[in-house]
């Protein structure tokens, strides 16, 4: 009996050791993959004013534009963080679209993602204001996507007026918002922010500076920004399957939509809440870079507008910006400088 007990104890110990070793190995593999997105490259100066190289008559809804998913999450815990640069640095990297989710906490407006909080909204808006003042050739899209509570909405309205008064694109044309945005040129948008609002409420209908965001399925008739999202695709598809199936599907949805700004959701989410967004992006980054670059020779090039990524960097943004050459949107006199700007290393 004692001999059998000893054997049982040994087997249990061996199994425990194997389990610990397996966990350590798995953690090491995950950490190695996640480390791939640790790109802290200093942005090239020209990325702060890349839109100055683009023709004035280029439609904002056709310019290939780097975007930031859950833009204000730098410093959040591993399960919520999708960016590791603040808004000012992302702007310097060439990012011009920002997905913002706002919640009031203890009297302060914060950027939130799930249960976590990070940047203060006032700091985000200060960064935007300072950048657009220093770089009047640029146009920024602020997609105020979600509000965590009612206090956040009223506070955001007041803070937008406080920090960005006079900096918003306004539809005073008599056209519908959708028609106006679909025909808005970069020249008309320079030095300003396009404010996209996540709720169909009194602000959208009563203020010419507020433009309505469509829902994930594109069901709102007058939505001016299309950002299609199917949770199971972004959460559970592998990188390869996502690029093969979801990306073409999202583009087809835009082709069949009412038009306006198109945000291609290119990020993958950790649906199991085990490894986090950084790990998922580590698996996905090179594949998505190659996918974006391939649009240069695709019949879908004309539809590519905002390419939204996790962990934006000069390297990723340059891949998107290169598409403007293929689109024929770069000013002839700036072609050489633009080529130098986008000639950043793209391997990961």
Record the SSE blueprint:
Elements (H helix, E strand, L loop, with lengths): L1 H34 L29 E4 L18 H6 L4 E9 L2 E6 L2 E5 H14 L4 E9 L2 H15 L12 H6 L3 H4 L2 E6 L4 H5 L3 E3 L12 E2 L4 H6 L2 H17 L5 E5 L11 H18 L11 E4 L4 H8 L1 H4 L8 H8 L6
Helix pairs in contact: 1-10, 3-4
How would you sum up this structure in a few lines?
By secondary structure, this protein is α/β, with parallel strands linked by helices.
Question: Which key phrases capture this entry?
Answer:
alpha/beta, 348 residues, ten-stranded mixed sheet, TIM Barrel
Assign the CATH topology: TIM Barrel
> Quick one: overall form?
globular
Low-confidence stretches: 20-31
CATH class: Alpha Beta
Q: Report the end-to-end length measured between terminal Cα atoms.
A: 58 Å
Measured as a percent range, the helix fraction is 40-55%
CATH second-level architecture: Alpha-Beta Barrel
Domains (count): 1
Percent range for β-strand residues: 15-25%
CATH superfamily: Phosphatidylinositol (PI) phosphodiesterase
* Annotation field: number of helices: 13
Main sheet attributes: strand count, strand direction, barrel closure: 10 strands, mixed
Number of strands: 10
Mean of residue pLDDT values? 91
Instruction: Tell me the Rg in angstroms.
Output: 22 Å
């Amino acid at each position: 009996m004692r001999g059998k007990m000893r054997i049982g104890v040994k087997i249990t110990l061996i199994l425990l050791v194997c389990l610990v070793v397996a966990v350590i190995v798995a953690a090491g593999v995950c950490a190695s993959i996640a480390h791939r997105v640790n790109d802290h490259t200093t942005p090239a100066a020209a990325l702060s004013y890349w839109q100055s190289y683009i023709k004035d008559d280029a439609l904002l809804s056709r310019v290939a534009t780097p975007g930031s998913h859950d833009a204000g999450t730098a410093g959040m815990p591993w399960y919520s963080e999708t960016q590791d640069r603040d808004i000012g640095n992302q702007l310097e990297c060439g990012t011009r679209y920002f997905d913002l989710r706002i919640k009031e906490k203890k009297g302060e407006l914060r950027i939130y993602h799930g249960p976590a909080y990070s940047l203060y909204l006032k700091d985000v808006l200060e960064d935007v204001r300072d950048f657009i003042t220093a770089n009047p050739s640029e146009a920024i899209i602020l997609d105020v996507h979600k509000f965590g509570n009612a206090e956040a909405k009223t506070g955001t309205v007041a803070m937008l007026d406080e920090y960005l008064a006079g900096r918003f694109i306004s539809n005073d044309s008599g056209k519908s918002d959708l028609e106006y945005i679909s025909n808005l040129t970069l020249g008309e948008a320079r030095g300003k922010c396009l404010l996209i609002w996540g709720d169909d409420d009194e602000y959208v209908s009563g203020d010419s500076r507020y433009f309505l965001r469509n829902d994930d399925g594109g069901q709102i008739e007058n939505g001016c920004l299309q950002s299609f999202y199917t949770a199971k695709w972004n959460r559970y598809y592998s990188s390869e399957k996502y690029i093969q199936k979801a990306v073409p599907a999202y583009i087809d949805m835009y082709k069949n939509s009412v038009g306006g700004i198109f945000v291609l959701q290119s990020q993958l989410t950790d649906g199991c809440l085990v490894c986090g967004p950084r790990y998922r992006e580590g698996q996905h980054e090179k594949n998505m870079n190659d996918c974006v670059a391939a649009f240069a020779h695709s019949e879908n090039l004309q539809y590519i507008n905002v390419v939204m990524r996790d962990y934006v960097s000069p390297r990723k943004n340059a891949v998107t910006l290169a598409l403007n050459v293929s689109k024929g949107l770069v000013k002839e006199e700036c072609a050489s400088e633009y080529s130098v700007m986008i000639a950043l290393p793209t391997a990961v």
